[in-house]
Each structure stands twice: as C-alpha cells, then as structure tokens.
Amino acid sequence: MNYYALKYFKAVAEIGNMTSAAEELKVSQPAISRAIKQLEEDLGVDLFVRQGRSIHLNHYGETFLTYLDYSFSALSEGKRVVREISGLENGEITIGVTLPHVFPNLLSNFLRDYPHVRIKQYEAASGLMLEKLLRDQLDFWIATHEINHDQVETLPIISEEIFVTVSRQHPLAQAKQVALSDLKGEKFVGSSQGYSFRELTDGFCQQAGFTPDYQIELEDAAAIHKLVEAGYGISFTPKISLLSSQEKIIPLRIADYSIQRTISLVYKKDHYFSQAAKAFFDFSKDYLRDFA
C-alpha cells in the first residue's frame, strides 16, 4: 500500500474536492485520481461517494480514515523518537494545558534551566485533549479535573482552594470571607456550562440551596477577571488564577464549604518520553506544588 496514496486519500477526505486537494498537495489531479483508484482496488471497496465535482467519504472511507489517522500519528511519533535518539534534536515536548494563565510562568522557569528544549502547547476542550493524548500527540496534559481512562495515568499534584472574587466596589469587598448561601441573588460571571470547573461550583451552590444566576458566560479566565473588576458580577476563582489578577479583584474565602479542585499531570501509559519530557515532568511537579 503506497504511502503517497494514503496521503492523497487523507487530503481528499478532509478537503472534499480532488482539484483543491491537488492544489494543496502541489500534484496533478490525475495523479491523485489514479492513487485513490489503486487504493480502492487494494481494499476491494469504494471509499468515496462521488457527486459531480464534490466527493465525500462513504462508510468504508470513514472507517479507513479513522485507522489511518492513528497510523499517521504513530508514524510521526516514530520519526520524533528516531530523530532524538540519533541526536538530531535537543528535545521537544508537547503539552496540553487548561491553565493558560499559569503556564507562561511554568514555561519560562523550565526554559531557564533547559534553554534548548522546544515546547508545543495546546489548549482545547477535555474530550479533544484526551483524544490527542491517546494518539500520542501530547506528552502530558495538565488537567484540572479527574480523568478516568484505562490507557492513561493521572498523577495528582495539588488541591487548590476556590475563592469567591468581587470587584473593589462590591458591598462584600471589605469582608474576609462569605457564606455560600449569602451569594443567592448575586449576578455571576463565569465559564460556560459543560466545563468541569463550572460543574464543580454549581454543585456546591445547589447544596447551599440555590442555582447561580450567570449574567455572562465565557471561557477566557482573563476576561472573567476583567468583567468582575468592572462590576458585572462576582465569580468563583481558583487560587492559581489569582496570580494573574494583580490585586484588581478581591478574593473572599468561602466560610461554610471547603471547595477545592485537583490539578494533575496526565499521560498515556505506554507513551515514549524523551529526556526533555522526563525533565519537564519532574520540574512541573515541584513547580505546581509551590502553590499548594
């Protein structure tokens, strides 16, 4: 089975047009047509439904593409391992992060000790992050909720406290702490539904007898801080996020509940780790524990 035929098939499947795929790959359209025809003959089935100039995968094609994606990921990982073993690279680390506000500090401190290591960072929803991890497209995932999967290991690093944050002008700004039940009737600013942090804090509020009234929902922690600072509502904020608030919002301890979340390093059990990745693993554990 020809490598280039597989590459052409993947491009046509993703683009949905042979002419556009040929332009993207800088090859002739007849070359792509011949390669895909040969691939279909090798497999004994058609992989596409052809309708005029448009082309899309049928059931066989969708199934084949799924396994091809895994194969290409494994091939890419193999190239990386060989290059590192042969001394062609000083080390590369790919990391999934759900703490974008603390990652630059972690990264700058790590690179101070390992200045020649290359870092690739990804931010995505949890489902996509787990998929990348399972396909060996990530070395590590710094996760903020429990991950249950038989192919991954989860190493809890710290449990961090969750605060209520308010603007300097808010009536609660002079308080040192607040009862969760006293927040009923307040306007909230926070992350969208479906995020693990939102599910955690909503659950505690419901235990306290109310459902938070979210006036604004968004996914950017820095934007949430800005909106709280401007007085559009109050928010739940984990301890690490307060590092970037620059004292422009006021954190209040929650008096009647102990709300915490756990930060973990997550990795695939059989993943190959470079020396650089091993160094980052040890460094991250020590760095994150400083915030405990």
UniProtKB/TrEMBL annotation:
One annotated GO molecular function is:
DNA binding
**What family, per the record?**
Belongs to the LysR transcriptional regulatory family.
State the name under which the record lists this protein. Answer: LysR family transcriptional regulator
Record field: transmembrane: none
The UniProt entry, under InterPro entries, shows:
HTH-type_LysR_regulators, LysR_HTH_N, LysR_subst-bd, WH-like_DNA-bd_sf, WH_DNA-bd_sf
Nucleus among keywords: no
Spell out the GO cellular component terms annotated for this protein, sorted alphabetically and separated by semicolons.
Answer: cytosol
Q: Which UniProt keywords apply?
A: DNA-binding, Transcription, Transcription regulation
Matches recorded under Pfam families: HTH_1 (PF00126), LysR_substrate (PF03466)
Its source organism is Aerococcus urinae
* Gene3D superfamilies given in the database record: 3.40.190.290, Winged helix-like DNA-binding domain superfamily/Winged helix DNA-binding domain (1.10.10.10)
PANTHER family this protein is in?
Answer: HTH-TYPE TRANSCRIPTIONAL REGULATOR BSDA, HTH-TYPE TRANSCRIPTIONAL REGULATOR YBHD
